[in-house]
């Protein structure tokens, strides 16, 4: 299967992408991972991206598209993939269509994870990260630490990232509505969009997604 995963920040795309890719036996292709891999390996595309990022500028679509196309051309992606974070605007969606059409391929589905805006803000603004080990993540409502402000695992200080402040989250949502939401209508025109609620436990959302894609969850 060839799937595009879309949804607002805080919808759980990264988590669901990992579970879905595993259950469907296809690679999870994340824009974030593509940037990190290309930059760490010092590829020409990675060097270009890094120059823009160091200058505080957005990486141009053509660089992002080239990275995605290179990754989709790898042997493990020949029988399918799950795209997470790409395409993020209409230009990238059109480039993806062109790339697939030239190879006689097509998308099977665009999975839209739907979450109310207030829930998105609650999810992200409530997140707290450990300063000693940023893999230790808590939430003031859903998974609070035993002692406020202190990591249960290592005793480090918990803090709220700048990106997680409510005003920043709302700005990120505005960007999502302006740049990314239009691709949902674009793909609805191709009868590819499957919308599911991303509320509930992780495994419940995964099961919902697999059923929507017409697959039963792997044992």
UniProtKB/TrEMBL annotation:
UniProt cross-references to CDD domains, sorted A to Z: ADK
UniProt: ATP binding residues: 10-15, 127, 137-138, 200
Record key words, sorted: ATP-binding, Cytoplasm, Kinase, Nucleotide biosynthesis, Nucleotide-binding, Transferase
Enzyme class: transferase
Pathway where it operates: Purine metabolism; AMP biosynthesis via salvage pathway; AMP from ADP: step 1/1
One Gene Ontology MF term: AMP kinase activity
Residues in Adenylate kinase active site lid domain copies: 127-163
Nucleotide-binding as UniProt keyword: yes
Amino acids binding AMP: 31, 36, 57-59, 85-88, 92, 161, 172
Reactions the enzyme catalyzes: AMP + ATP = 2 ADP
Chain intervals for the UniProt region annotation (NMP): 30-59
EC number: 2.7.4.3
Top-rank taxon: Bacteria
Compartment(s) where it occurs, according to its Swiss-Prot or TrEMBL record: Cytoplasm
Note on domains (UniProt): Consists of three domains, a large central CORE domain and two small peripheral domains, NMPbind and LID, which undergo movements during catalysis. The LID domain closes over the site of phosphoryl transfer upon ATP binding. Assembling and dissambling the active center during each catalytic cycle provides an effective means to prevent ATP hydrolysis.
Function: Catalyzes the reversible transfer of the terminal phosphate group between ATP and AMP. Plays an important role in cellular energy homeostasis and in adenine nucleotide metabolism.
Subunit relationships: Monomer.
Family of the protein in this entry: Belongs to the adenylate kinase family.
Protein name, per record: Adenylate kinase
The species this protein was found in: Streptantibioticus ferralitis
């Amino acid at each position: 299967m060839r799937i595009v995963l879309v949804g607002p920040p805080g919808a759980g795309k990264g988590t669901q992408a990992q579970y879905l890719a595993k259950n469907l036996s296809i690679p999870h292709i994340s824009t974030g991972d593509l940037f990190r891999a290309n930059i760490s390996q010092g590829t020409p595309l990675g060097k270009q991206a890094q120059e823009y990022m160091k200058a505080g500028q957005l990486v141009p679509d053509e660089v992002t598209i080239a990275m995605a196309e290179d990754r989709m051309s790898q042997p493990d992606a020949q029988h399918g993939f799950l795209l997470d974070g790409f395409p993020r605007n209409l230009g990238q969606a059109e480039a993806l269509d062109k790339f697939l059409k030239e190879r006689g391929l097509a998308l099977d589905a665009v999975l839209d994870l739907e979450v109310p805006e207030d829930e998105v803000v609650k999810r992200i603004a409530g997140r707290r990260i450990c300063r000693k080990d940023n893999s230790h993540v808590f939430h003031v409502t859903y998974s609070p630490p035993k002692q406020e402000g202190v990591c249960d695992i290592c005793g480090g200080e918990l803090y709220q990232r700048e990106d997680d402040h409510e005003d920043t989250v709302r700005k990120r949502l505005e960007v999502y509505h302006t740049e990314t939401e239009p691709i949902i209508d674009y793909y609805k025109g191709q009868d590819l969009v499957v919308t599911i609620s991303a509320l509930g436990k992780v495994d419940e959302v995964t099961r919902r997604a697999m059923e929507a894609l017409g697959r039963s969850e792997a044992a």
